[in-house]
Amino acid sequence: MLLLLEIALTVSAWKAGWGARALIPAAVALAFGMLLGAATGATEGALAGGQAVGLFLFLDFLLIGALAVMSRTAPSAGRNRDGAPDGSPAQLAEAHSEGGGQ
Fold first, then answer.
1. Which of 5, 63, 74, 75 would bridge with 29, disulfide CB 3.0–4.6 Å?
2. Alpha-carbon gap, residue 102 to 84, rounded angstroms
3. Strand partners for 79
4. What is the pLDDT of residues 30-64, one digit of tens each?
5. How far apart are CA 6 and CA 73, in angstroms?
């Protein structure tokens, strides 16, 4: 059930303007989940008291939180906090042609 929510939030974040960057939280969570699964397997499930399940759930809810925030907020319009271009080639060329060359 959480997977369906994660997919829906990823699609929502994508449509909110994040594009392919909406996949980054899921990729990070998948990588950590795989590492946690490998560690659990390597210790033959010796993590005490269901720690692995708790960590997996924490990771899932962290992912859902990140995706929810991304879904609600659009990314900045390619500008840093001080209003300067973020460094993409198109924006640097535009800034240079406006007289703000480097």
1. 63
2. 12
3. 85
4. 999 898 888 888 887 776 557 778 888 899 999 99
5. 16
